[in-house]
Amino acid sequence: MIDPRSPSTAKLPAIAVEAAALFAERYGKEPDWIALAPGRVNLIGEHIDYNDGFVLPMAINRYAAIAACCSDSGRLRIASREMSEPLDVAATAITCDGQPSWSAYVLGPLALCAEQGLTTGSLDVLLASDVPTGSGLSSSAAVEVATATLAEAVCEKTLGRMEKARLCQEAEHRYAHVPCGIMDQVTSAAATQDHALLLDCRNGSLEQVALNDPAIAVLIADTRVQHTLTDGQYARRREECQQALKELDASSFREISSEDIEWASGQLDAITLKRARHVVGEISRTLAAAEAMRSHDWDALGQLMYESHASLRDDFCVSCPELDTMVAGAAAIGPAGGVFGSRMTGGGFGGCTVSLVAASEAPSIALRLQAKYKQQTEIEPTLFVTRPAAGSFLATTPTRDSARRTETG
Q1: In Å, what is the CA distance from 285 to each residue of 179, 280, 349, 351, 373?
Q2: pTM value?
Q3: Looking at residues 357-379, what average pLDDT do you find?
Q4: CA dihedral defined by 224, 229, 231, 236, rounded to 10 degrees?
Q5: C-alpha distance from residue 243 to each of 51, 240, 270, 296, 311 (Å)
Q6: Per-residue pLDDT for 194 more than 90?
Q7: What are the residues facing 198 on neighbouring strands?
Q8: How confident is the model at residue 399 (pLDDT cuts 50, 70, 90)?
Q9: Which domains does the chain show, CATH number per domain?
Q10: Which residues are catalytically annotated?
Q11: Any alpha helices (H) in 14-138, and if so which ranges?
Q12: Which residues, 6+ apart, have CB-to-CB distance to 191 below 8 Å?
C-alpha cells in the first residue's frame, strides 16, 4: 500500500498518490494495487495509421491511475474523482448496457480480460487521471491499458505488451464503438522510458528509438479548442484516402512514391491528389524523422515536424487557426530561442501541438507561447514539458495473500 508520507512516493507520479488517498477516502480502506498507464503524444506520422504507414509516438508523463482492492460484495464498484456515487455492476456479468459512456473504457477491458482467463472477481476501484481529456493525448487508451494492467495484477497473470494493447483496442471497438487504430494502446502499454516508438501500422512491428538527450525536451501545448463536425471529417478523410488508392490502382500507400503521385496528378481530382500527397509524404517524413532522432540531428527532425504540419494544414486540411497560431508562435522563436520544430498532433481541428525544444529553455518558451497565443486568440492555453515516459506499470504490490484474493474474488 502507498503511504503518502513515505519518501519512496517521491518517485511515483503524483496521480498515483492522489488515487490512493481518494480510494481510502471513498472506501474507508487502503488499496492493494495501483495500476498506471500513460497518455501519449505523436511526434510525427499523422493520419497514416489507417493507411499502412509509420507513426512515431512516445508516452508522456501524464497517467491514468486505477487504485483497487478485492471485496466480498460480488460487485464491481468503480468510483472516480468526478462521481458522487460509484458505478456498481455485477462482477460475474460485466456489461456496459445502460451504463454511462465513460464506463466502457474500464468495463470493456475487464470483460475482455475475463474472456482471456483474467477474471478479477469483486473489486472496489477508484479511477483518477491527469491526462488531459479531449486534447488528443489518448486519455481513453491510458484508462484501458491501466485497467488491463490491474487485471494482470489481481489475477497474477501477465499478458504480452502487444497482446494487452490489442485487447484494449478491441475493447474500444466493441464497447466504446470507436474504430481506433492500435497506436494509442501500443504506446501506453509498450513504451520504454527515454524512447519513442517507431510503429509499422501495416505489420505491427515496433522499434524503440532513443530520445534520451538531456538537452532535448518535448513541449505540449493544448490550444483548448475542439471544433465541431470532426467525426464526419475524419470519416471523409478515410474515404478520400481509399478513393485515392483505387484511382492509383494500388492496394497500399506503401507501394506508392511521391514521384508516382506527381506522375498521376492529371488523373486525380484536386482533393484526392492532396490527400494522397499527404499520406505518401508523411510516411517518408516519419521514417526520416526516426533516422534524425537516431543521429541526434534535432534541426532535421524539427524541419520535418514543420513540413508535417504544413502538409496536414494544406493537403489534408485538418488543422485550424488556433493550431496554426501556436505552431507559428513556436517557429517565430526558432532555434536561436530553443525551438527546433513544431506541429499539430492528433486528429486535428483543435487539440494540441507538439514542439521539440531545448530543455534549458523549455520554461521560458512555454511562457512566451502562452502569452502570444492568448494575445492572438483570447484563449488561455495549457502547456507542459514532458520526456518520453515508460509504458504501463504497477505502483504497488498486493498486501493480501493469494488465498484471501481467491476467497473474496
Answers
A1: 25, 9, 22, 22, 27
A2: 0.90
A3: 98
A4: -130
A5: 12, 5, 12, 38, 19
A6: yes
A7: 207
A8: very low
A9: 7-210+390-408 (3.30.230.10), 216-386 (3.30.70.890)
A10: 184
A11: 14-27, 104-115
A12: 38, 40, 57, 58, 59, 197, 388, 389, 390, 391
